[in-house]
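At this stage, I put together one protein's amino acid sequence and its backbone structure tokens, which the following lines show:
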Amino acid sequence: MLTIKQNLLETIRGGNPDRFVNQYEFMDIILENPVDFMAPPGGSIKTGWGITFRWPEGQIGQFPVHDEEHKVLKDITKWREQVKAPEIPDTDEAWAAAVEHANSIDRNEKYVTAFVAPGVFEMCHHLMSMEDALMALYEEPELMHELIDYLTEYELKLAEIICRRLKPDALFHHDDWGSQKSSFISPAMFEEFYLPAYKKIYSFYKQNGVELIVHHSDCYAANLVPFMIEMGIDIWQGVMTTNNTPELIKQYGGKISFMGDIDSGVVDFPTWTREIAAREAERACTNCGKHYFIPCLTQGLGFSSFPGVYDCVSEEIDKLSKKMF
């Protein structure tokens, strides 16, 4: 029987896996980074960038607050005065918990996985609102290039500290690039504004010991896959069924692998059932096959919004491995 890590490599290299890679099992994700970005459920947080996030009681996630009082970047023409990158902690004390976690992982079995969120596109609209960010790409492209370069430099500083202190084997990086039906911006605009940023970021990680780049974007982004390949993504996590995952595997398998095709919105809800989980897992595994595909909830970490769903899906994937391999 292959180890978890060996089975992952056989799957994404088109070799001889002996079972499905089961969701997030191959990544041990280090979430103890001393960089604030997540409000507690039912609460709020103001990050070092000045962005206020709220997670309303009873909702399944957070989002930034963009009323006049809380919006960080109110005028793209004044971004240099209004946007100030926070200092990234770089002391033994600040990183002690993350380093301890990294050192506890068996690197022969799982990938020591650094975690970075939010990404460059999300940072743009977190600072200034989605509407303002999209309009600025059209109305002030030169200034948006400058802002994106500034955000990229921050990410590269963070990457240097992460690689030096944690020596990760993998990176799990968040940046949502679309809705369920389309990318937020056209491929041409994505290529102009965001591809160069990610080529710099992901090449830095690859040059500093990271073997595997896993990018989370739970949306439609099939039209951006060529750019994902160009920027160095090994696995796109969060692939929704609206992307036609089997067709993507057929077209791009061998250059990139796809993790998802079990839409969280279909499976992970208050009145979920095992029957629904089993149906969706079987559909995904049957349609997508054994190579270049990892069956997984589209949610961006290894848990579910409602208790029991993630474990149930994992159990159903194990059953399908016994049946199909």
